Amino acid sequence: MDQIQRSFAAIKRGKPIEAEDDNDRKIKRLHFLMGVKKELVKKLAEYDKAVIKKIPKAKRSLAESVLGGSIDFVDIYFLDNAKAASKSVARVIKKYNWQATGFMISDELFITNQHAIKKKEVASDYMIEFNYELGINKKPKDSTTFKLDPDKFFLSSHQNDLDYTIVAVGEKDMGPDNLSSFGFCPLSDADDKHTKGEWVNIIQHPLGRLKQIVLRENRLAARSDKVLHYFTDTLGGSSGSPVFNDQFEPIGLHHYGGPSEEAFTPEGEPGPTNVNEGIRISVIIKDVVDRKENELDENQRDIIKKALNIPYRGPSLVQSNE
Q1: Which residues of the chain have pLDDT under 70?
Q2: Three-class DSSP category at 12
């Protein structure tokens, strides 16, 4: 059996949560999703369908999806979360030519790949463009571009390491909207954000084109301490895109259309090779925390501390509407 088949053996059996080999992570993830007692969650993880009747109606369709009974169905608020998350995603441009994708992680910080914006000295040559997308009438929206302000905040990790750049957003260059209208998707190092076998969703600017989203048929196939491997569609220009779970919480920072690091399937075997790769958000957070005292000044430490202590995990624009 080839590696893809091994990675998806549980899914093909119609039991997607069995793709996760870390039982503690599985229980934590289900507990977070369902919001019920862990005793019930453990039974749910064992495919005790009678447990579904004890789960609140608002979570029942999600429970059925987790069990594999209706995996093509999602609650309609999925679209609200997707739209709110999408607002925070922008195209990275240089002299109005596309470079990559990225997204807001706080009301003033933006993240993309280091191989897109390599160092502080050149970051001010780049801008980020929001709303570069089609509207409901299939006509391009009026986009808004902002300059970057690396003097206010800049921290990066080389592309051969964690391949991220976090930079402050500066003044508006052109366009109708204020930065606050695009919101942000905060970063979290919680260990209940994903399990192997779950769906991932990527919002991106492939080849610098108008914003697009890849939904469904995208499974998290393998994981290491550093990276996630997933089956989905990306192209050049997708670098720096957020990899979301179904709650549109960032779980990874997409950086390559193929594996550069070894990750492992649910059976503990080396992962497949025809996959996309993203850096785990939890690893990026750890790196930032480890470096901030020695590499950032007091103001910069305050900026990143604020960004890493957002009291919620989903898109900010959803929170503001609740």
Answers
A1: 1-14, 62, 64-73, 216-217, 235-237, 320-322
A2: helix
**Domain spans, the chain:** 12-73, 82-186, 187-285
Residue that has been written with the tokens 């957070």 in this structure: 285
Structurally, at CATH architecture level, domain 82-186 sits in Beta Barrel (2.40)
277 in Cβ contact with 255 (< 8 Å) = yes
Residue count of the chain: 322
Question: What would the 3-class secondary structure string for 242-295 be?
Answer: EEECCCCCEEEEEEECCCCCCCECCCCCECCCCCEEEEEHHHHHHHHHHHHHHH
Give the separation between CA 25 and CA 40, rounded to whole angstroms: 16
pLDDT at site 4 = 44
User: What is the rounded CA–CA span in Å between residue 262 and residue 19?
Assistant: 18
N-term to C-term CA, the chain: 47
> According to the model, what pLDDT value does residue 131 have?
97
Going across the sheet that includes 276-280, the strands are 212-214, 201-204, 242-244, 250-256, 276-280, 227-230, 220-223
CATH topology of domain 187-285: Thrombin, subunit H (2.40.10)
Paired with 229 in beta bridges are: 222, 277
The alpha carbon torsion through 249, 255, 257, 260 (nearest 10 deg) reads -110
Token pair belonging to 101: 């994708």
Tokens of 96: 């109005």
